[in-house]
């Protein structure tokens, strides 16, 4: 065990002096090593080819470690997925961390190692970053911000681009991340093997693009879940979306937690689940391409788009009735990501 691994983070680790230098070189640079980062300039120097996607996200999830991932894993997958959802190949990321004084070094190392590991899935590189340490009580362990840039490989994927007669596809069963965080906060972890869906989606998106799937719209169903994505789409494209509850995959653990706490799986956050709108003609190809991935085994067509009920989402229940699926109200679970 190195001397540092027994220690916790001190204010001096963010002070710009020797201790900070040691932390950055010994931990972050080692884990994220690449030729741009190694230059150690004030800013990374990058070159771009054509249309470029650019996104940012801050991660404050509580607890920091949960079944199926941790805040570091999430900080990479979350930003990389926002690029992928625009048809962009994730290329460069920044990484800023705000660490609370006293945070265990070993935990920080685990988080940074999972970031490095998750980067491998997309091939994106962390090319710049920042480390701040705040006094005890001024943060909750660690907060991470990542910003990402990627080259657009398929243009015109847009929430404004959904057409009547499109079909709606979900990549897997919904609600896992939200249910997992809820479970760990309520201390139910031992009673279930439910885990977060947190993963990098770029490989699945790449295969769709490589196979000439004309993706009309695509979005990862994070905060607000499936219900938020579908409502945003119906309004942005001024179409009616109709989904069949019986076709929406939900695992038994998520169903059980929803019944127990009065939640709906459609409202729960996901971190490795995405929704697509494509033409009828390409829907079957999308399903078979997605099902090759072990994180999309239950990819399914869940609904259709039409000109009726423009701006609204209709949920058809298994009992033959239907109702509007509204945007989730209020804050179901704060600090979900
Ligand atoms: Mg997103």
Strand content: 15-25%
The major β-sheet equals: 7 strands, mixed
Bound small-molecule species? magnesium ion
Strand order of the largest sheet: 8-10-7-11-9-12-13
CATH homologous superfamily identity of the largest domain: PurM-like C-terminal domain
CATH architecture verdict of the largest domain: Alpha-Beta Complex
Rg of Cα set:
21 Å
Which CATH C-level class of the largest domain is it? Alpha Beta
Elements, N to C (H/E): HEEEHEHEEEHHEHEHEHEEE
Overall spatial form: globular
- The total count of helices amounts to 8
Secondary structure tally: strands: 13
The CA-CA distance between the termini, in Å, is 32 Å
Q: Structural class, please? A: alpha+beta
Please name the CATH topology of the largest domain. Phosphoribosyl-aminoimidazole Synthetase, Chain A, domain 2
Catalogue the unreliable spans: none
Q: Please, what is the average pLDDT?
A: 95
Helix content estimate: 25-40%
Whole-number count of domains = 2
